[in-house]
Design a protein that fits this description.
Layout: H1 2-14, H2 17-51, E1 54-59, H3 65-72, E2 80-85, H4 88-96, E3 102-106, H5 110-115, E4 122-126, H6 133-155, H7 176-183, H8 187-214, H9 217-221, H10 227-258, H11 266-275, H12 278-305, H13 309-324, H14 339-342, H15 347-358, H16 363-389, H17 391-394
Parallel strand pairs: 1-2, 1-3
Antiparallel strand pairs: 3-4
């Protein structure tokens, strides 16, 4: 009987274009669209920053050692135009209105300090809101500093190796999977949870509040079927809708990687293939299933209580923020899956998925996270049953 109700409600849900959009179309498209925009914008900014000719304001004489070296730097480091200023006030003023992008000021004794083998002082002005400018300024200064350093070594007849007491090599022992897990692992569960919630929301409202508005719930309740069977049949459709939305988001990610060639680095692509295995997908859905049941369990009481579709939507939408916001914890570095975080709903799913992507998942903590979500899902289902069993809530 539960399965019969499930099939009937599923057919009705699949006829709703709005639900299909939220459940399948948007999740499939969201990854390709977001990743395409992100990659194209990033490449555009990088190319623009690298090719842009910077205007450099300089306070000092043309005979200054630093200016001479700056003028001789090749365009490969970055195209530039040098404009001379008499004071820092006009230089800073032009820097604020972007007439120049970098300002430089050397002490009056800059050349003599270099000749006397003393540190020569240089001040660099830049606008931190102008992306890439500081890096370009550092590249100019570092190149000229290395030139001056080599000249000083030759003048003093010094061996560079003798002036380097310690030669340090830094070796990263983290695997590529672990790096991806730390850097990008937070966004995956966030998107899956967000779409899982949205995928549950519209069917939950339609199957409960919608039936009340249409006046068909009374007819359904007069059939010789236990009320809990009706609830479980409808809840099955809500849970399935949430899982389908999450699956569609995963499919969108797969399309982005495989079809659109967004990941061009072959080594990185091999690492991604190593992550997106059948085992990974099954474990991901093992985590998402109790979470989706929990989502359905907190939405259905609201949908049963509400007297109109609009009222239900206005109540559930703020719940979306409350539930999905903890998923942002995955973006913060240094927060890992522990006994404490494994007991926090939503957060435990995010961190478990993040560890799963990195390949560093502790299965004991995974079991604890799963158990916590199962308990919460059971409580949510029980609350839904008590609310659905109350006559005044079901019938308008």
């Amino acid at each position: 009987m539960i399965f019969t109700i499930f099939k009937k409600e599923l057919k009705d849900t699949l006829r709703d274009k709005r639900t299909l959009m939220m459940m399948l179309v948007i999740p499939i498209l969201i990854f390709p669209i977001i990743l395409s925009i992100f990659v194209s914008v990033s490449e555009s900014f990088s190319e623009e920053a690298a090719q842009k000719e910077l205007k450099i304001g300089f306070i000092g004489e043309e005979s200054n050692y630093f200016v001479k070296q700056l003028e001789m730097l090749p365009d490969a480091i970055g195209k530039k135009e040098i404009i001379f200023y008499k004071d820092s006030i006009s230089l800073k003023k032009d820097l604020k209105v972007d007439s120049i992008q970098i300002g430089m000021f050397t002490a009056s004794n800059f050349n003599s300090s270099l000749e006397q083998k003393q540190p020569a002082k240089l001040t660099v002005f830049y606008n931190a809101t102008d992306v890439g400018v500081k890096e370009r300024a550092e590249a100019y200064v570092k190149t000229i500093e290395n030139i001056a350093l080599q000249e000083r070594y030759l003048d003093l007849d010094l061996n560079v190796s003798q002036l380097t007491p310690i030669e340090t090599n830094y070796s990263n022992i983290a695997s590529d999977k672990e790096m991806i897990g730390v850097l990008a692992g937070g966004i995956l569960p966030y998107i899956f949870i967000a779409f899982g919630f949205l995928g549950c929301m519209y069917p939950a409202i339609d199957l409960f509040t919608g039936e009340k508005e249409r006046g068909t719930i009374e007819t359904l309740l007069t059939t010789p079927v236990a009320r809990w069977q009706i609830l479980f049949g409808k809840m099955g459709v809500v849970v399935l809708s949430g899982l389908l939305a999450a699956s569609a988001a995963l499919l969108g990610l797969f399309i982005s990687i495989e079809v659109m060639d967004i990941v061009e680095n072959k080594e990185l692509l091999n690492v991604v293939h190593g992550i997106l295995t059948i085992k990974f997908v099954l474990m991901l859905f093992m985590l998402l299933f109790p979470l989706t049941v929990f989502f359905a369990g907190i939405m259905i009481p609201v949908a049963v209580y509400a007297k109109s579709f609009k009222e239900a939507q206005s109540i559930i939408t703020p719940i979306n923020l409350v539930v999905v916001l903890p998923a942002m914890i995955g973006f913060f570095p240094g927060i890992k899956l522990t006994v404490l975080t494994a007991c926090i709903p939503v957060v435990n799913i995010v961190l478990s998925t993040k560890e799963l992507v990195a390949g560093t998942l502790d299965y004991r903590l995974l079991g604890l996270s799963f158990a916590v979500m199962i308990i919460l899902a059971v409580i949510a289902v029980f609350i839904s049953y008590k609310r659905f069993d109350k006559e005044t809530n079901v019938v308008i």
